[in-house]
Amino acid sequence: MAIVCQSIRPNLLLVNELLLTDEERDRAGARLVALLDSYERGLPEAEILPAPDRDALSSLLATPMPEHGVGVDGLFDAWESTILPNSTTVAHPRFLAYVLGPPNGIAPYAEAMAAAMNQNCNFWQLSPAASVVERSVLEWLASVVGFPSGARGILTGGGSLATLQALATALHDRVPDFHATGLQRDAAPLVVYTSVEAHRSVDKAAAVLGIGLDNVRHIATDPLHRMDVHALRAAVEEDRAAGLRPWYVVGTCGTVSTGSVDPLDEIADLCAAEDLWLHVDGAYGALFLLSEEMRGLMGGCARADSITLDPHKLLHAPLEAGCLLVRDGAKLRDAFAFDSSYLTVAEDPLMTDYMDYGLQLSRNFKAFKVWSALQAFGVSAFRDANARTLALARRLGDGIEATPGLTLLAPVTLTAVCFAVDGASDDEHRALLERLIAENVALLGPVVVAGRRGIRACVTNHRTSEADIGLVLHRLRQAVSRRPRRAAVAGEGPGGGTAATPEHNPV
Ligand SMILES: Cc1ncc(COP(=O)(O)O)c(C=O)c1O
C-alpha cells in the first residue's frame, strides 16, 4: 500500500507531493478542457501579435520560484493571466508570416498523452510501441517522397537538425575513417554547393561540422530563383581543377523566401555524373508531394541521397517535428550507431533503436503527435489542407498582380507570396507591416528578393480562409490607393526606390 502523507496543499491527502489528488486531477482536467475550448473558439478574434506586457514578464524573473506550490487553480490562473496573453497567436487564421504550420486539432491531446507515457525513444525496450509508430511514420514519409524500401530516417527537432545530420551522414560515407580522424587529416578541402536562396541551416551545418564556410559555394539562381545548374556545373569543374574535392550538393524544394523549387532532376543528373551526394532541403516544400500533381514540379526529391522534411510545417504537428530520410538507410546507421553495450539491446526485426540513427540518446515521442493526427484526420485531410493553402496563395498573388501600385516580386510557386508597394522605401514597407499588425489585420513578414525589399505572406495555415485573404487584399489596396501617383512610378526599380517620402506617402 502506498504511504499516505499530509500535503502542504490544504485538506488533501496525497500519496506523493508530485502527484495530483483525484480532486485536483478532476479540476485540472476541467480547466484544461475549458481553456483549450476557449482558446480555439477565441482564435479569430485573438490578437495575432500581442504587445508583451513587460511588467508581467519581468515579474516572472523577479519572483522567486515558490517554496510551496500554487496548486492547480493557481497555475491555470497564471497561464491565463500571464502566459497566454503574452504569446503569439500562431494559429490565428491571418498569421501569415514565416513557414510555420499552426497545430492541428488533435495535437494538444496527443502531446498530453505523450507526456504522460514519457517514452524514451532511444532503444526499443524503453518504447516498443513508439519504436514501431516512428517507423510507420518514417516509412509513410519515405513513400510520399518516393524513396525505396531500404531508406531509413529519424524524426528530429526540426529541419535544421535534419540537415545537420544529413551532412554528418554524408561525411561518414565519403571520408575514410571519418569517425576516427574527422577532418583532421592532410587532404584537399571538401566543397559543398547550394544556392544563394538556400536556408541558412545549410551554412550552419557546414560551419559546425568543420567544412568551413569558405568551402560552401552559393550558386547563382535563374530568374525564377532556382539554382542555375550551368553555374553549378561550372563551379564543380572549377573546384576540381583547383584540386579541391566537390562532394555534396544541397538542392532546395521550397526556398524559404519565394518558395521556388530547384531543378532537382537536372541537379540529380549532375550529381550522378560527378559522384556528388545530393541532399534536398524539403523542409518547406517537399510535403506538398502529398498531392500527385506536384510530382512534376518536385518529383526529383525521389532521386536525392537524403532529404529534410518538416512535419511541424506542412503536417501541422506542434513544434518540434522535423525529419531526415536517407535513401540507403545503412549509411545513416553507420554514421550514428556507436557501441553502447551498457544499454540493454536485444535485436528485434520489428523494432528500431533510434539512438543509432541520430545524435540524441534520450528522445521524446515526436512520432506520436504526427501519427495521431494522420490517424484522426486521414491523409486526405492534410492533402486537402495543403491544396487549400496553395490555392489561397495563388489567389493572393493574383490579387496583388491585379492591384495597381503593388508588384509581385517572384512567381507564386508554393504558398509564399512576395510583393512590394511600388515606390515604397524600406521604412514604409516596415510601417505597413506594423500597421497591419496594429490593426490585427495580419502578420506578414519582410523579405528581400533579388536585392529588392518587400513583404512576404506565407499561407501555410490550415485555418486561413478566402475571407481572410480577401481582408488582407482589401487592406493592402486601401493602403496603396492613398499613395500619390508619382510614387507608384518612382519605385519600379530594384530596391523599391526612395522618391516616396514617409511624410506624404503613408502606406
Ligand atoms: C527551406 C527551409 N529549410 C530549413 C528550415 C529550417 O527548419 P527548422 O526551423 O525546422 O529548423 C526552414 C524553416 O523555415 C526552411 O524554410
TrEMBL record:
UniProt-listed Gene3D superfamilies: Aspartate Aminotransferase, domain 1 (3.90.1150.10), dopa decarboxylase, N-terminal domain (1.20.1340.10), Type I PLP-dependent aspartate aminotransferase-like (Major domain) (3.40.640.10)
GO molecular function per UniProt: aromatic-L-amino-acid decarboxylase activity; pyridoxal phosphate binding
SUPFAM superfamilies xrefs: PLP-dependent transferases
Keyword Cell cycle: no
UniProt-annotated stretches for the region Disordered: 483-507
Cofactor dependence: pyridoxal 5'-phosphate
InterPro entries assigned to the protein according to its UniProt record, in alphabetical order: Aromatic_deC, PyrdxlP-dep_de-COase, PyrdxlP-dep_Trfase, PyrdxlP-dep_Trfase_major, PyrdxlP-dep_Trfase_small, Pyridoxal-P_BS
UniProt key word Translocase: no
Residues carrying N6-(pyridoxal phosphate)lysine: K313
GO BP term, example: carboxylic acid metabolic process
Family of this protein: Belongs to the group II decarboxylase family.
UniProt-listed PANTHER family: GROUP II PYRIDOXAL-5-PHOSPHATE DECARBOXYLASE, MIP05841P
Name this protein carries in UniProt: Pyridoxal-dependent decarboxylase conserved domain-containing protein
Source species taxonomy: Bacteria, Bacillati, Actinomycetota, Actinomycetes, Pseudonocardiales
